[in-house]
Amino acid sequence: MIFQAPHTISNELKRIAIGIQYDGSSFSGWQSQVTHRTVQDHIESAITHFIGGFEEKTIRLTAAGRTDSGVHALGQVAHFDTVVERPDWSWVRGLNNFLPSSISIQWAKQVPIEFDARFSAFERSYVYFLLTSPVKISLLHQKAGYHMLPPTQTLKIEEMRKASQYLIGEHDFSCFRSSECQSKTPIKTIYQIDIVEEGPKVFLFLRANAFLHHMVRNIVGSLLHVGIGKQTAEWFSELLLKKDRAFAAPTFSADGLYLAHVGYPSQYGIPAPSFEHCAIPSAYLYQAFPLAKQGVEI
Description:
alpha+beta
């Protein structure tokens, strides 16, 4: 039996922001579905159990990014509204008591009512963990995207880096956009793409104001085409001009994709995510996304 301290109820509606990490392998993505096998469903259920029915309306979470089935998160941010008053750490401990081990609340804090986890964000950062080797690595199952390469073959990393630089800046990214994408515009701004190679492990770090549905996985799939010599780096310039999804590579696996960090204006005081204890070396993450390490939001 889980002990719960009495709740304090206020007439004033409060907005609570939470930082979330999850292993997305066993979930049908973030967004709520009738199957209730999503991250959002589990956290909303945890909130309902923790507050014990004190709310007149069903709790609804809004997230910074609606990650797909199989996608992981190191620094997801979400918010919900409630009349229940609890200390910040009480929200963390209380919600984690009702969550599966593959989802954890890292922090919680009251934020101004105008804060919106989705619309207040000015940038998102993702990392893709790509494994290339003659055989799969069982201990990295569903933690990394896998592409089989013969023992004597390696990726053309420098060509991949050259190709990625065509994407920096503001562009129409229709060539990397899913047909199910609900974004009002395909025009986004990519600030950064870094590629780090460590033997058979390749880490791709991407930072942008926002991403289209499947955009990161489609970029990774096309970069892999360049890496194995199927296309040249200049092909990326052609893809941007064509603005047609049919000309780019197939969508790559969700297994290696992680939502790493979401940037917010400093006025909201959103805590930085922790990059410790995950399949991706924390030193690489902090080097690629230094604002996360410093806890600084601009």
